Amino acid sequence: MLPSYVLLDLETTGGNASRDRVTEVAAVRFDAGIETARLESLINPQQSIPSFITQLTGIDNSAVQQAPLFEEIAPRLMDMLTGSVLVAHNVRFDHSFLLHEFERAGLPLRCQTLCTVRLSRRLYPEHRHHGLDAIMQRHGLSTLSRHRAMGDVELVQSWLALMLAQWGGEVMQAHAKALLQTSAALPPHLQTDLKTIPDSPGVYIFYGESEHPLYIGKSVKLRSRILSHFQASSREAREMRMAQEIRRIEWQPSAGELGALLLESRLVKRLQPLHNRQLRRERSLCAWHLAPSSAQSPLLTLVRGKELDVQNLGLFYGPYRTRQQALQHLRTMADSHQLCHHALGLSSGKGPCFAYQIKRCKGLCCGEESPERHYLRLQLALSSGQLHAWPFTGAVGLREFSADHDKSEIHVFDRWCHLGSASNASELDEILGQSRQNLAFDLDTYRLALRYLITAPQPGVERIDLSRPTPL
């Protein structure tokens, strides 16, 4: 199959390579198809072995108490791996543990890897499952030492011998060479070939077994960003959990970063992926509305997201993700500017507010400050958080063009709302002709529009007049 390779399997205290440790290692090296070295040893993980691991493997704390530390067998294992290909069933798991264990031992690991799960998937694409239990059942293999390191190594060795006899040396070698070009970081159950994903701007969607997405992300380099998720999974528990769930990846291209950001925001809110907590939070969005005169009480009213009028955003201050966040900010602002808690609706009752009693109110509540002066100071205090009124008479377009990927889009905004993105004239006409009676405020879109239209125009994006014919 390969000139030189090491069949390896590890047993561990858990599934997190950065936190858990190795409890057993088995490795067999083959050169020119002949076994040349063998290593089998329990390992003292220097941490307790969970009971469910003991039930699975039969390895308990007493069994490893006198076993060597990984650093003691590391030089011998490194010698076996030098100049050879690391082969394992779900090699990503074993490789990530070896990286951490060798790093602790002060020995950097550098070797090519080959995953026999992927090899099985290539040889038998019609089958859905390619774990060792499925392979045993499918090919009539058996072992008395399942879930022990050497038992699983010898099981994979038997399967490879069976495949070599069935498919022949040339076919097996061709598949092995093809798999050597892929990354060890990729999960073996991933059904999508990353080479088919462009390294251009767009949005990617991770799916597990179901049709409900796990995660939606964006990047100006899709393939590189997707690969970085899997590379980080050996170091970060959250990325590892998600990588274990991913089965397929879908993607949608865009002209550039703005298009990717808008598409990501829209898809996250519509599809509600499991791991996108930040962009999903819109239901509790709120902002403060200032009373039109100093005589009204209370001076501030908390308005929910659905009640935010996009035609009169200049009357609102914030916004905030939650009611608690809005109240906390108001209390902090009131104390720092010595504003009256009674007038702001933070407290109620007759006589001086509590803030006045501790000298954090200038006395509106007891006649020491005029309502007009207090109202003016409140406006000044709120000014930094005032939402921007729409500064244009109608819809505005942001034309984004990517010379590298020959793609152009016009993103249409009206009253800070994203109406849609067009890549041709008919799509643009359809967007401009749609009804705008029920435009809803969206914080992420507002911030993007503000950034690209007002505060910091970006290279590759230009504002265009939609009242004139627009080339795409």
Q: What is the CA-atom radius of gyration, in angstroms?
A: 31 Å
Question: What name goes with the CATH superfamily of the largest domain?
Answer: Ribonuclease H-like superfamily/Ribonuclease H
Please state the average pLDDT score.
90
Number of domains: 4
- Unreliable runs: none
Largest sheet, in brief, is:
5 strands, mixed
Which secondary-structure class do the elements indicate? alpha+beta
State the name of the first-level CATH class of the largest domain.
Alpha Beta
Number of strands: 15
Strand content: 15-25%
End-to-end distance, in Å?
A: 53 Å
Helix count equals 18
- The backbone outline, from C-alpha atoms, is elongated
| CATH fold type of the largest domain | Nucleotidyltransferase, domain 5
| Fraction of residues in H or I helices | 25-40%
Tell me which CATH architecture of the largest domain applies here: 2-Layer Sandwich
